[in-house]
Specification:
The chain is an alpha+beta fold. The chain is 21% helix and 24% strand. Among the domains are: 272 residues, Methylamine Dehydrogenase, Chain H, CATH 2.130.10; 157 residues, no CATH class; 195 residues, no CATH class; 133 residues, Up-down Bundle (Histone Acetyltransferase, Chain A). The chain is elongated and about 125 Å long. This is Bromo domain-containing protein.
Length: 1120
Amino acid sequence: MLIKIWSAVNGRLLATLRGHSAEISDITVNYENTLLAAGSCDKMIRVWCIKTTKPICVLTGHTGMITSLKFCPYSKKDDRYLVSTSNDGTVCFWQWNVKTYEFNPNPIKYVERIKQGAHLICFSFSAGGSFLAVGSSDHYVRVYHVSGPVGPAKVLEIQPHLDQVDSLQFSNTGLRFVSGSKDGTANIWKYERQEWHSKTLQMSENLPGHQVSKTNPEISIKLKVSMVGWSLDDVYVITAVNDHSIKIWESNTGKLKYVLKEHDDEVYIIEAHPVDPRVFLSGGHDGKIFLWDLSTGKHIKMFFNQITGQGYGSIFDCKWSPDGQMFACTDSHGHLSIFSFGDGEKYRKIPDEVFFHTDYRPLIRDSNHYVIDEQTQCAPHLMPPPFLVDIDGNPYPPNLQRLVPGREHCKDEQLVPYIAIQHDRGVAEILDPRQDQQPNSPNAEVQRPTIDDMIERLQAEQANRNRVNEEHRYAVNSNDNSIDQPRNLPASDSFSSSNRPGARRSGDVEGVRQSVGNWQSRGENISILRRTRQYVPPLYLSEIKKMNNQLIKLSQFEEESYFKEAKKKPVTTALVLKEIINKERLTRRKKQMILQRRGIRNNLNNSARSNNRPSTRSNNALNEDEPSIQSDDSNDTSFSLDGVESWQESSSSSDNQSDDSSDDDWQFSRTDQRSARTKRKSQRNRNFVDSEDSHTDEQPRSSRNNNASINLDEPSTSSGVTRQSNKGRSKKQVLKDDEEVLDLPDAYKPPEWLTEVVPKRTPYFPQIGDEVIYFRKGHELYIEAVRRNGLYNIHPKTQPLNNKHVKDQQLVKVKSINYEVRPPRLVILQMKILNEDNMKETGEIFTLKYHDMPDVIDFLVLKQFYDNSIQRNWKPNQRFRSIIDNTWWFGTIKSLETNSNYEGCPFQNFRVIWDSKEEENMSAWDLEPCTERFPDSQKEGLSITEEERLQLMYIPKSEDWPACGREVECDRLINGFEKIMQISWAENFNAPVDLNEYPSYAKIVAYPIDLSTIKARLENRFYRSLDAVKFDVSFIEKNARLFNEAYSMITRNAKLITALIQKFIEREDCMDPTEIQQEIHQNKDMYESTESELDDDQENDRIILSRLETLLISIYTKII
């Protein structure tokens, strides 16, 4: 509960800081050496001025004990941060001003309690203070960008350990840190290419040739990491293990260098020497302190904390001085030990037991948690200098009392307290000697105070009480905006034994903790009491400036390193063009052809844009920006990559497909992009644009909304930053990074009908397992509209006339769904034909593709809607209403028409007259009966109500959902998704990809999906079957693999999160997906990319490259 400030030069006790009501858990001092902050088990943080011990503020934002506390070293601005973590699972960033010492009582708070009872244990700042790493009991490691443009922001949340993370340490320079866990591993983390990569150190590893004896108890110990650290030069990572050993690892390779076994108990202290990179210190519960030489792996010196008559004291903490000339440690017996060079003569005058007589006196607290001394009614920092006593409360002689700050120049009579026994209470009281009493007087020790003495003492007390408000105002004067003024405290009416406080009421111990009474010497007057003492002299301005400049350089280096790596592209399948050319051993003529084509394109576009890496995974690799030259009649001259798309899809599909389903345009993906998009016009040429020209400057965000942290877009150099290529790329670049920033064309933006989360009657949104009625007439109308508008080439196999086995009106079932980024974005459906009598499959299938078009009627209708409409038996002159764009429109059926070409087909066979007098053909499933709330004639549309919308929705079949029903199952999945989205694996997939930042994502991934979209669809009962939910979930992994390397971190996480959700869906009785998460985490190696997957990716790249070459050459030939 006490904080003591000592002089390291001579061992003097300078001051005691009181105020906390429970044990101190952490202490921190800002680098200017002006403020000291302490966190406690009482859930509060108190900040004092070191120079005067004046309380600056009390921060009360936590609801649990403070576990760690530190001033952020980032010093570019006057507004800085004090950071704290707590058992309540929160990390708080307290903003304060270095000039005014004003603290904002409302912190920036991150609540990181993912699991019940989880708490944050430790944290570490980077050397420059730009980044903060936090470890917690829920096995997570989190990293915050403290110096971000909008304040601290979380940039990493990952679960790399199987047990609590209770030790963390950033390297002395750069963006590396090490995390230690009770699971027996330590991870070395480094930020590279937009991701935090880790290297795992296994504590079970031993040096080559090491043999463990069968009788050795270490084989039965579950190894845990006790503490981690770095050498001064960051060459080595140091880990303390619970088998009492210390292991030294090469930080760059993770190779075990030394195993140090000198300690006899666990080691919790690892401190690198602040000057010599070869030296570090270790301290443990065995009472031993070792100085080690990292160059030899041997100890230089050992100190043993022997305590006479008590054995030894376990070392609890230890710190070097900034110059490395001394270190201090504390032990389990409350001892402070200082180790240094020399004979220690300056310390010998200091007694072994050093306390102030006021250390344990009771305090009174006000509503703002400020304190005053209960007896003197005075704030601790404004009390007169205390007396120096031993552990039993006995005062030391005058020569030692002069060691107390403020008593250095006092006369001897002012340094001798008067001790008397209060017989009515039976306790000792130290009273002041008489002012004229001589120290050597024979009656000095028996003289009792006179009434004059008591009156003078009472006046002094009254003066102290009058200063209570003044000293509180003084304490908060510079913090008017952040700290409320404490209330006034009542003063006692008289100074008598009946109302004078006695010993502490609980937790009493003998000696100094029971000291009571007025210890002020009578020789001191009010002017002396008012004098402000300086306990710790300020640093020289030159020293502060030097440290500040050093911290600024470190933080700048961290920021530059971070943004440099953030601009680099992660390792993806979009290989650098030169690497592809070398890999495929292209001839010099082909290389020259590519460069010549680039020159032609540059001349046409009047620009010098180029790129150093084309997309090899994109199915529209050459047709990414705008629709290219196309011909309805000649496929060999079409600049469309239908062939590339056809090969990739057919070769990667695992479905057994008939000849009719081997369509040339099958692909995956969907979109749910709601982000705002820029409206600037693209200056690109419409006809001759390829994948190399379509890349834009995209700097990945550090937020969790980046589904595509690995992308194919290359940056421009307008910012003046040159980006580095992939590993293995030669220094000489074939292409330059001078790309200009370009917008995503509207044609590539995902259409609204494919991004809906609320179910609608029209347009039809296909879902796996749907039973629908296919209308040939409607399909032909769609084909005519596509040709009329020249939207895309129609493949013969997808034309209705080629499907002779399909009737004009056919009952079918959706077997598979794929998507294509053409544009327009198309849906490719593979349909199974059903027998209308028994609803069984006939074995015949056909394929079609379509997209929603204005003024084109759906030719696919859900069977349920069709059956309901036919049962209504509509007749002429009946009133109806119809939904168009979420609005009711009204009309009357005029007549029933038939088409000789489509006998018996009800598609658009009603001629209707709208109330606006317009006529049109409609189908029965487009019509709804009118209700009483609607007038007989309504020329204007009426908005549909939510109740009406729900009444018109699809009613799920019982066999399509578990026995509990859709409502219960959706609620279970929604609750599960809320927990799953908090898992670190899901971080990149929680929200839609920002297509402004990653435009190439929309050109590669045809059906983007994310967890928030799936959750919203569950909430709105969008899905007609559970299989439809599984279908969307499967695209989380498919899209990640399509856009990223198969062995990248984001792809691995996509596999893990997909497996987790799929297992959660399958286990109908599971309510908490975190149980499944632990199972998957233990077997996560199963989800690493297989060799076959990597081979598939490489084969895809080779084929696409070959297609690229052929198309480039054909375009070049045609142009010239």
